[in-house]
Each structure stands twice: as C-alpha cells, then as structure tokens.
Design brief:
The complex is a heterodimer.
Chain A: H1 2-28, H2 85-94, E1 98-101, H3 105-110, E2 112-113, E3 117-118, H4 128-132, E4 141-144, H5 152-162, E5 168-170, H6 174-181, E6 185-186
Parallel strand pairs in A: 1-3, 1-4, 4-5
Antiparallel strand pairs in A: 2-6
Chain B: H1 2-5, H2 7-30, H3 32-41, H4 50-70, H5 74-98, H6 117-136, H7 143-146
Helix pairs in contact in B: 2-4, 2-6, 3-4, 4-5, 5-6
Classes of the chains: A alpha/beta, B mainly alpha.
Amino acid sequence: MKTFIHNLAGGLVIMVVAAVVGVIHNSVRGSSMPLIQKVEAISTAVRGSGGDNAAVFDNPTGPAAAPAAQGETASTTVPEGSVTMEELRTMMEAGTVIIIDARAVDVYAEGHIAGAVNVPFDRLPEYYERLTELASPDAAIVCYCFGPTCDFSDQLATELKIMGYTNVRVFTGGWEYWQKAGYPAEGTKVD
Amino acid sequence: MGLLRRKEVLFLLRIVVGAAFVYGAYLKILGPQKFAMSVRSYQVLPIAVSNLFAIAVAWSELVAGACLIFGVFTRQAAAALAILLTVFIAAMIVVLAKGIVIDCGCFGPEGNLPVGWLAIVRNLVLLAITLWVMRADDGSVSIRRLLPARR
C-alpha cells in the first residue's frame, strides 16, 4: 500500500511537470490559448420542468412573440442572449443573419430552418476550422436546437463567443417552435 | 497470472498503452482549442479552467505515455495514466447520467467513440493495465538498462 501511494505521488509529480511544460509551450506557440478562459456563457434553455425562462414559451405562436406587457414579471421577458422567433424571421428574410442548427446531422437533414447551416454539437471539435472561417467577427449569428429545453445551442453560442464572435444569440424556441409556426423550412421530411 | 508476470507481456502492454496515449496527446497538442472544446462539451468543469485542464491533460498523456514506452519512472508514469483514466471514467459517467450525447474526444477531434459504455469499458481496460504495470513492472525492460551503469 505504501508503494502504491508512493507511485501515485510520483505520478502526480509527472503530471505537474508535464502541465508546466504544456503551459510554457502554450505561451510560446503562435495561437496560444488564455490559461483562464473568460467568457460570459449564454444560458437561455429552460431547465427541468419549467424554470425562470418557462413563461417565455407559453405563447403558442412562439417564445416572446410580443414584448412583455406592463406588470409582467421578469421571467416573461426574452432571456439575455436570445432572439425571438419574429426577430429571427425578420433577420432571415433580410439576409442579415447566419443561422446555425446545433442538432445532429440526421435530424438536421430531416428538417431545419431555411438557410440554416449544420454544426452538430455532438461533434463540435470536427467543425472548428469551419467555424473559424464562418463569418466576420461582428456578423450576426443565431444558434438553435430542438426546443426550449435543449441547451446545445447555448453551448455552441458560448463556444462561438470564445472563438471571438461578438454578435451571437440563441433562438431558444428552436426547431419545435419554428415548425409549429409553419415558418420557412427545408429538409427531407418538411412538407 | 504467471503469463502477466512475464517481462515480454508487460513490455508489450506498456508499448501499446503508452503509444495510445502519446498518439492521443499528439493530436490534442496539435489542436489545443479543439480539445478544450471537447473538455467544455462534457459540462463538468467551469469554463474558466477548461483551457488549463486541456493543456495539463494533453501534456500529462504525452510525458507519461513516453515514460511508459521507454521505461523511465515506469511505475510512476503508469500511476499518472491511472489517475487520468479515473478522471476520464468519472467524467464520462457524469455525462451519461446527464444524458448528454457527445464524442469522447479521446483521440483528438475526429473518429472518436461517443461517450457511452463502450468508451467507459475501454478506459476500464486501460486502467486495469496501468494498475498492473504499477504493481508488476520491475524495471528490467527500460532505457535505463541500456545506459552505462553509474559507479
């Protein structure tokens, strides 16, 4: 047992030495990463069976289609970092937005918001190069996934912010609300 | 058990496990941003420390994997890999429990297993091997033996 603990301690020393070498390598390489990653994470998804953002999606025509009326609580306003369905449709029709579908390749193929590109969150690192060349840093980008409880779009939007994109938001209603509203869509299973 | 005590088998296990970690580390060091993305996709660590963790893991895999191959601080290197594998297995169990579907990120950005029981079993097998090397390696097959003995 004593030898086992001794070896574990030795293993930790190897890891610390290796980490120091890694940090030095990171500081001298061309495109170094910040050791402490500062980013304001986007969090718009509805947690569990309701949560703070749940009231936003009560409107059958889509989340927060109308501005919050006087006297309504803060939970009925659009969550920070998100875009309403009407806003997204306006931007889409004006051609001023890049829409990213964060769902898996097969569900994207079945149906997605018209013009949306697919960056499946389950294989995100594979798409790193494509994301770096996606648009100018200040381009308007909106991510979405299945619906209000899906947080892949939040995660993807946060990653885009880390990559340097400054105008990234999430359409929290996602494919579920877009489809319900009958807004423009593409895919093999779209009527 | 007699078979596993044989030097040749232990040496072979060291080479296979060490090479797997060195290869994985090479891909992670080549694309650190992608590996940091993988780390964040697990949603286990705070985003703030994800880059530092990614760097520490990638380089630990490289150094410990190389030590295992060359027989330098072999038992300690096996211990380092055992610690890493335990962390990976724990993180994968958390991801499974949360119901998140992601690539494991074990060997860089592409061609990975999804986080699931297959990836966990693979890591358990690797963990068993590293624990065995920790216990059974006697340093008889190592680069140190090739160097002239110090007086």
